[in-house]
Specification:
The complex is a heterodimer of chains A (about 130) and B (about 375). Chain A is α/β, with parallel strands linked by helices. Chain A is built from four helices and seven strands; from the N terminus they run E-E-H-E-H-E-H-E-H-E-E. Chain A has one domain: Glucose Oxidase, domain 1 (3-Layer(bba) Sandwich), CATH 3.50.30.10. By secondary structure, chain B is α/β, with parallel strands linked by helices. Classes of the chains: A alpha/beta (about 130), B alpha/beta (about 375).
Chain lengths: ~130, ~375
Amino acid sequence: MKVLVSGKVEGTVLKSNDAINFLGTVDKKTGIISDKNHELYEKSIKDTILVFPSGVGSSVGAYTIYSIKSNGTAPLAMICQKADLTVATGCALANIPLVILPNEEFSSINNGMRLSLDTDSSHPLQYQ
Amino acid sequence: MELTREEESALKGEQGEIMQMAYRILVATGEATDAEKLVPIEWTHLSGVNYNTIGDAGEEFLSSISKDARVKVKTTLNPMGFDIDNVSNYGLDENFISKQLSIRNSYETMGVIPSFSCIPYEIFDIPKDGTQVAFAESNAAIHANSYDNLKTNKESAFSALASALTGKSPYSSLRKEDSPNVTIRMKVEDPNELTYGMLGFFAGKVGDVSVNISGLGEMDNRQCKAMCGGMGTSGTCAKFIFGEGDSDAEKIDFDEKAMQNVHDELNTSEKGDIITLGSPQLGLEEISELAGKLKGRTFEKRCMIFTPRTVKEQANKIGYTNELERAGCEILSDCCTCLTPLIDKDNVDAVTTNSIKGAFYLKNSNGVGVNLKSLSQIIEDETR
């Protein structure tokens, strides 16, 4: 596991196998995904542990992550398969914990699971 | 990533929230790009200035951090959305203007030099060979790495801002010695700046971090800038090295066919309603050359020319601006073809330009058609 932004949280997984373009597909007021073609269409990412392969699209999407955090509609943490600079800088701006998992561990996480993440612990990811 | 004790302390928040955020950005960026440490940098160039690109979220963020944040090293700034001296001629809405001025204000409060230019390498002195800098504007990062003997990552707006606030940047691959695994062989004859722009665009698509380019003859300033601008538009690659490279590097030809493919992707119109010159912005040499080429001729259409304010002031003194205005040019400072809100698809169907970078953004962001022509062709076809 690679820690990009450290932190400690507990929550429920919302997982997507689609990449997320934060600029334009996430409603900043509600945290709801507004892209009809996205697996998470009409789902809210607010207060979830958001698990998705990686971010895509404009680096300005980092400001969207900062905005949803300011609006109280951001995920508690994000878990990706591949590091990308938009999500990395967005989570850094907003202070949202972000880790990158190896493929196998990423695949083993399912929607609705309860997880606790503590990046300073020797077992950072605990399934409950 | 290995951090020094002082960097660790900043990351923990012992030097305040702004420094903590800045180090969070550097660490996240560094981890994402496999940097093993941070290195000191002497100059940062920031993107994320135009309200058109950063929007309300960016404006609010900058306004909030500018209360406490101050830059630690020389920091210069990309173009914004308009030239305050003539913005009233372009019917831009009040909200855009006030948000843009707030962004300008925030950067100035933080101690940033309000250069509003995407060609810092032409309007500021270049530090000594090998100096570490942090440039977010893609054409400037490529120019710095390829022509100016400086070292920079292709920074994001955020990593560059974090570098400005801390004086540090991740030690990622572009800062290290490397031998690219791809060599592009230039096979197109009699290239002009448009050819070099397309070559750059092509190279950016096939290269990952850096590429070798062989078969280049003597290039003038306009052609070098065109190549950097083209490359920065199409991918992540941010350095070209002149020569054949290692013998095991993959060889890819940029020939007439490859060039035609780039041309077909970006040229969407047979003619333009207006002409734009400058993306990257024109330097003094290009302004002088343009004034010389015009030789009393006049544009038959609107021609917008984008140049840094300092260059415009020099051009004024020498008399070039008089000559360009006589020929019907509108000279704009502080902004650029790229992502300008001054060209709107409600008023303009297509733009004629010699800029590949400009073409890409006019097409994809402004939603207007693009007609590509070299400068010589523009003068031949569009002036009399």
